[in-house]
Write a structure and sequence with these properties.
Elements: H1 4-13, H2 16-31, H3 35-38, H4 48-60, H5 63-74, H6 79-85, H7 96-106, H8 110-122, H9 130-141, H10 146-158, H11 167-179, H12 183-195, H13 198-217
């Protein structure tokens, strides 16, 4: 098993990526900073959809044109357009950013699902709901979205959101996240592989083979 000192050190390090991401999106949604100013080329974010929103912003030229174009696409239930609208302040409705984020998540965008999980875990923009948070994180991870897979690995490692610590479950998700080259996942995966018994690792390998088989058929 992992030593108490190792567990305590990793327990603080694992959520760091999400605290940074959460602060970034909190500033956008709570201060009403337009996406055209907030998402400059020097901005650093692990979410690919944010980069796509930045490209749409550059093409639109101004915030009004951007909103008009995005709302037209959102009428067709375009999850990326809905996600981008969640980053654009709307003076007509202060709740609009979260509503658009929720719509994007329901329509399957994994980045939106990831942020919905973060919102429900932290109670930001909505009441805390651990079960809802776990559900949204899991939806994103099952789409083979590496950042959500790492988040699930951290949840099962730490025992957050009402689940008991489960190291084999953590290794399963950490392995998938590591294959998406999430840096923190590599460290967690290595530590868990050292800690688990051979039978536990064999069980994880079987689950991984089932996962790869399912992904190859999709």
């Amino acid at each position: 098993m992992l030593s108490r000192s190792t567990y305590r050190e990793m327990n603080y390090q694992l959520p760091l990526r999400w605290y940074i991401s959460l602060c970034f999106f909190s500033l956008l949604l709570m201060t009403g900073v337009p996406i055209s100013y907030a998402l400059t080329p020097s901005s650093s974010t692990p979410l690919p959809a944010v980069w796509q929103c930045q490209q749409l912003t550059a093409v639109a030229g101004n915030l009004y044109s951007l909103r008009v174009q995005l709302e037209a696409r959102a009428q067709e239930q375009d999850p990326l357009a809905e996600f981008c609208l969640s980053l654009v302040p709307d003076p007509r409705n202060s709740l609009a950013p979260f509503q658009w984020l929720e719509q994007s998540a329901k329509h399957g965008l994994p980045e939106a699902q990831l942020l919905m999980g973060t919102a429900y875990e932290t109670g930001m923009w909505t009441d805390p709901n651990p079960q809802q948070a776990l559900d949204w994180f899991t939806r994103a991870a099952r789409q083979d979205f590496g950042l959500a897979q790492f988040e699930l690995a951290a949840i099962h490692f730490e025992g957050r959101l009402g689940v008991q610590p489960n190291l084999p479950e953590s290794l399963f998700w950490a392995t998938l996240a590591d294959e998406h080259q999430i840096p923190e996942a590599q460290e967690l995966r290595a530590s868990l592989e050292r800690a688990l018994k051979p039978g536990q690792k064999q069980m994880v390998r079987r689950r991984l083979q089932e996962w790869y088989s399912r992904i190859s058929r999709s």
